[in-house]
Amino acid sequence: MQRSLTAVVASLVAVALVLVGFGAARERRAARAAASTSANRAPAVTPAAPAAPAPAIAKAVKAQPDDSPKDASEDAADDDPTRVIRFARDPSPAPPFLLSDLDGEPISTAAYHGKVVLINFWATWCPPCNEEIPEMIALANKYKDTLQIIGVSMDDDPPEDVRRFTRAKNMNYPVVMGGDKLSDEYGGIPALPTTFVIDTNGRVVQKHMGLYPPEVYDNEIRALLGLHVDKPVETFEDTGQIFLKNVARATALPGVDFKGLTPDQKKLALKRMNSELCTCGCKLTIAQCRTNDTTCSTSQALAEKIIRAILASAKSPPATSAQNE
Q: pTM for this one?
């Protein structure tokens, strides 16, 4: 009798643990889906779904039209990608990779030299990503000989589940399973969807975070292929808009007011913001976090603290030498 009772109790405990595990998984998926449903299509800057549970939803950082980066809140209309096509002036080579797609076929970025390539980081649970899929399918059909789209799934689900999803959506471009290593090689993917635009020479000329109008990609593809476009084409220096490592080039940061600082003081402030880590848990420098997530209150406060400290030190009287006493 005692052994039977013990067996029953053990069975109940096991069932409870399984139910708790399922409940936690559902909560994680619900949280990510709820965050991503706030994404609305906008002509220039569109919120994106967080690539992993995060304290804030990252937004696209707009490319600047000149050599002097401006605050991200300025001249939004001038940065509207539906009006102007912008590419990086001295683009960096795309980080190469060789992976197998969901059907086991090898996918190598080197194999697509001569074509425009869109590397699209996405997930099955991401509503903006799902809305974007038909647009990517249409682009793949329209430019089937000159464009290659590569989907990078950031799902936690098994590859077979993602494969069934892609078949149900009739996705006509290869999909590989992503991960931390590939994400890190592309500078980190804090939000979904995120798409890197690569020119025919294998260089990353633009990055889009969030859901963009399909004509933005269409115009960029045409311009990179040398086809006629009815939009002006401008270039910008990558100061973190594409790769966060290039934030060190920036002379301004989103939401940071450098007014009141001398040129030397501003240079010192930027140096500190590019060397000191943000404490929000992002593992980025303060400057990188400001660029990557303009809603982060932690990096905002840390940047303001650095500026206050520099201003205060400039106002402090010099120490009196003991020799003058």
A: 0.72
